[in-house]
Amino acid sequence: MTRSTKAGRIALKQGATIAATFLGLVLVTFLIGRVMPLDPVTAAVGPDVSQEIYDAVKEEMGLNKPLLIQLLDYIGQVLRGDFGVSFSTNQPVIRDIARVFPATVELAAAGVLIGTLIGVPLGVLAAVKRGTAIDGAVRVVTLVGHSAPVFWKGLILLVVFYAALDWANGPGRLSVYYEGVVPTRTGLIVIDAILAREWDVMRDALGHLALPAFSLGYGAAAYIGRMTRSFMLDQLRQEYVSVARVKGLSEFRVVFTEVLPNCAVQLVTTIALTFGLLLEGAVLTETVFAWPGLGQYMTKAMFNADMNAVLGGTLVIGVIFVALNLGSDLLYRILDPRTRT
Amino acid sequence: MNLKFASPLAIAVALSTGIPALHAETPSDTFVIVREISSIAEWDPAVSQILDVALINGDVYDSLVGFDPRNPDTLGGMLAESWSVSEDGMTITFKMREGVTFHSGNPVTSADPLFSFRRLMLIGREPSSNMRALGYSAENIDDYLSAPDPQTFVMKLPNKLAPTMVINMLTSSAFSVVDSELVKSHEVDGDFGAKWLSGRADGEASAGSGPFMIDTFRPQSLVMLSANEDYWRFKPAMKRVIYRHVPEAGTQRLLIEKGDADLAFNITATDAAAMAGAEGVKVEYRPSKKILYFGFNRMIEPFDDPRVVKAMRYLVDYEGLSNSIMKDIGTVHQTFVPAGFLGAVTETPFSLAVEKAKALLAEAGYPDGFEFTFTAYNRKPEMDLATSFQATAAQAGVKVDVVNAPVSQTIPLYRDQKLQALQLSYTAGYLDPNATASKFTFNPGAMPGADREAKWPSEMTYRLGWYPEDLSEKTAAAAQELDETKRTKMYEELQKAAWEDSPFVFLFQATQQLAMRDNVEGVFYDTRGSSFASVTKK
To answer: What fold characterizes domain B30-216+518-537?
Structure first.
């Protein structure tokens, strides 16, 4: 078999898996949406409307049709690139997602970056100093990160660093006086400000991003730290570590040039999955920090039985996970030579 | 382009070291409001009448009549300079104010209210219930509304109605006057421009003539209004009014205390009390048009017996709730007409009286109490009201199974008469007792000659299966009474009669807490309406 046919088969197989994943996602979300005891018609028209108007809107929304027809209609619509209109916002779902998703990406990226920068060194330290007071201290720090309620953590950060110390800006993505200063290009305000060379806006946006990103990043650091520790411990037990030490390599070099690179593959998966989870939208963090992201959007849509928005959002999240999986697969190949054959 | 700042390392360093914050008071010509505004979806006043939309549209659109926010003591002409009522009370003629223009520059003429009221009726969405209450229908509207010349708008009434009530109704957001020329130019398939006006996008013109125009709308995030420099009444002191969606109450409090916002709507009672002493902050309490109530289904046992419902009235700890859960957010109010409205009865004859309740239950054949399902809104303070009721009802042997559910789940069941008992609130649409009387003591199905089998899911009385023939007729008569003294008395009697037979138990009139910076003056917000056009910052 030639290399190109093999690659073609792999691509085909992957393509089929992705298509099946999306179909499954649509199917499950659609059915859950239809069996939930929420009424999209009432949510759309209000509680006090007459029966005639209620019936007319129900007809208009296509909810009188059999479930299977509704599902097929929806799939047909999505294949044409039309995700419908969200009645929670009265805007096309695509436009809504284009607005809220960059906010989430900005927050999740900063969060996972902080999580990695704190989590990995902490994990390495805990593994190397296993059983010592340092290991204990790291465990306490990560335990707090894991178990402290997000809501509480967010408010504490606001009270201390925004209200009392004035080190960071408050809730929202920008201060009011910077609203509308920078044209939207990527939707990531920090990047848009840089592109527009508006440094004040960039500083303001970073000042707003700091606390929610740290709030998320701390939680992520706790997870990444614990995983790093366990990956490191696995590696430290291996024979090659003893060999390296016997050869007279300094402990620093053993850890950072021998052991840590061997954890890279697993770490990449962990970090990618953490990023994926953060991209789903951190509802509580977004709520405390008035961050208009995907989490708040989806939650509101779900309570309103706004199925177009819920389905659209779910598909976006599906795409993210598939893309992250493919991305980390690709990284494996780069990081681990054994996977290349 | 210098992109080195974008490097992750630079961002990380910036984040980890903390950015020197750029804090300042909000700009002196900008009014920043923090509020939960995620429900705003449709902007058209003929399509949506949810509170957030009505609040903002109140500053974007003018009505024929309304209150001057600088001196809201008397109801006066807005787009109508004056009006006259025919002797029989069946025709109201409005003389339009000259020289007023819409935000687009189009002049305001009598063609505009005519177009606005017609489309309100013919679009037929929730706000059109106001037109139906006046006796209009899609079929008869053209026979009764006319604009004989650009300065005259004539409203003939299909049924006899108290002209004061009609004028009061015209202050509600449903009767906002839209720019007919502009809206018509966006009409698609006979939709009266509703699709365009409802789903507004950034940068689109506002179709009103009010003190502010909508500049920016980012759903579930931000609404930015800019001042209408040519506003006919006065030039607003604020150049911009910004509504920021801040869902969390604690966050709203921090923003006010730091001076990053001027007015917060959703702080908790505890926060409000704590904030009252904070530097630079003041908290004001304004009555609202919202009434909180319990409802018991007359079609489901044991509430088919009015004595059982009356027993429930004695099983609510009004005083205890008033000093705890409802402290500063509501006052005990036991009738459906909010205080401040014509004919409102503010007596509170009911208090927690377990023995009285037990006696009534024994009389009705339930000496050992009973068990029932009580559906309550899944948010505060509603959930807490239900829990308190559960505890007090238990004292009379009544077991209350509380089900907390979102409104989107509750309303369909309520409309279908399927709820045994519930807790909900109702906000009067306009400043007249008929706004609530028509909902709580009137059932169209109970009127003489009405079809008893017909469905009226928009009516609260129908939803609880209550067909009060006498009270329905009396409610209709009160709406028609031309003599104001007599009319007042009729509403007072209606409210007292409802205590005996009604399946509704009224508990509280909600209070709106306004947490503000102490340099803010001139906020108009109470049962009469709201506006930020008169706001100044010292």
So the answer is: Dipeptide-binding Protein; domain 1 (3.90.76)
The domain ranges of chain A are 3-92, 93-340
Cα–Cα distance between B166 and B144 in angstroms, integer?
A: 14
Which of B18, B41, B224 lies nearest to residue A89, judging by beta carbons? B41
Q: What is the pTM of this model?
A: 0.85
Gyration radius (Cα) of chain A, Å: 24
Q: Rg of chain B's alpha carbons, rounded to an integer?
A: 25
Q: Domain locations in chain B?
A: 30-216+518-537, 287-512
**A38 with B15: Cβ contact below 8 A:** no
- Tens digit of pLDDT per residue, chain B (538 long)? 333 333 333 334 333 433 344 445 788 899 999 999 988 888 999 998 888 999 999 999 999 999 999 988 889 999 999 999 998 889 999 999 999 999 999 999 999 999 999 999 999 888 998 898 899 999 999 999 999 999 999 999 998 898 889 999 999 999 999 999 999 999 999 899 998 998 776 667 789 999 999 988 888 889 999 999 999 999 999 999 999 999 888 899 999 999 999 999 988 888 888 887 888 999 999 999 999 999 999 999 999 999 999 999 999 999 999 998 898 889 999 999 999 999 999 999 999 999 999 999 999 999 999 999 999 988 778 888 999 999 999 999 999 999 988 877 888 899 999 999 999 999 998 889 999 999 999 999 999 988 888 888 889 999 999 999 999 999 999 998 888 899 999 999 999 999 999 999 999 999 999 999 999 999 999 888 899 999 999 8
CATH of A93-340, one of 1.10.1040.10, 1.10.10.60, 1.10.510.10, 1.10.3720.10: 1.10.3720.10
Residue A257 per-residue DSSP state: I
Task: State how far the Cα of A200 lies from the Cα of B22, in Å rounded to an integer.
Answer: 9
- Quick count: other Cβ atoms within 10 Å of Cβ B9? 10
Q: Is the peptide bond before A149 cis (omega within 30 degrees of 0)?
A: no
User: Using the beta-carbon criterion (under 8 Å), do B245 and A290 form an inter-chain contact?
Assistant: yes
Chain A environment of B408 (Cβ under 8 Å): 38-39, 42-43, 303-305
Paired tokens of B384: 């807490």
For residue A53, list chain B residues with Cβ-Cβ distance below 8 A.
124-126
Return the CATH architecture of domain B287-512. Roll (3.10)
Tokens 């408010």 -> residue: A155
What is the distance, to the nearest Å, from the Cα of residue B140 to the centroid of all Cα atoms in its chain? 28
Confirm whether B30-216+518-537 and B287-512 share one CATH topology.
no
Tokens standing for residue A209: 């991003």
